[in-house]
Amino acid sequence: MARLFFVRVLLGAGSSSWLHHRTKYFLACQAEPASLRYAGLLLVEKAMQQDDVVIDTTPEPRRVDAIGGWLWIIGAFSLYRRSWLQWTAMSALFFILAFALSALPLVSIAATIVTPVLVAGMMDAADRCHRGESFQVLDLFNGFKRNTRELLLVGAFYLVAWLAFFMILMLMVELLGLKSQLIVLSQEALSAKNTPAQSPSSALVWFGLFAFIGGLLVSSIYFFAPALVMLRGMRAVEAMKLSYVAFWRNFLPILVFSIAFVALTILASIPLFLGFIVLIPLALLAPYAAYVGIFE
């Protein structure tokens, strides 16, 4: 089935005021996604050569049904089946590098900054696989060859966001006097005794709710950002803004995806955790499947 690519161009009508601008739409229709994107880029390049032209090429995230969260898992598994050995090897290499970076005392912070570069390599390989092209395990490092600066900025902004959020949480703990309650709850969780648990205060409940929602907010600016930077060539800030919009516009399918993935994690842990051989690649491929479902 042919797919459509829209480029909106605002052309000046001879006046300096934007109120007199006219809107024209160029439509490129092509069966192959690679040719489709190339045709769209040609239109953009041609339009930018004119004077007083404003190009709006920002992808618009669509809203998908709640069942889309489960379809993302199916899509990720479909990609995994095509080249299961390569995906398993690439996922193992990804986690070995991530673990090695996080284990080093002075480099653990840098791991958060570098991780989007590796994730972008996975997204690039997944895009090749999705389009029927070949890829290699070392394509994991493609993020170091293309859009590296913006990917590192995504990691840096993401790290700063988490640090700021943790500082807010620590300040709330001190102001609300929740430190002792958190210590008691942690001791009860680690204790093997079947003693009745102390009921949390209302302040602690609200604190937990705030921490949960805040964590989602921080995660939302990152979820689609590596794919948008790598596959769309977007800048870090624009990609993180668009990731935020796409995340909350599709919160229900993301919730379904999260619940389904928790269930799959439990199932994968039953046979001596052998299911994680498949589950880990699925966890890395699912964001690409979500990206395709929302942006492609």
From TrEMBL:
InterPro entries: BPSS1780-like (IPR047798)
Keywords of the record: Membrane, Transmembrane, Transmembrane helix
Segments traversing the membrane: 92-121, 151-173, 203-225, 246-267, 273-294
Domain of life of the organism encoding this protein: Bacteria
UniProt name for this protein: DUF2189 domain-containing protein
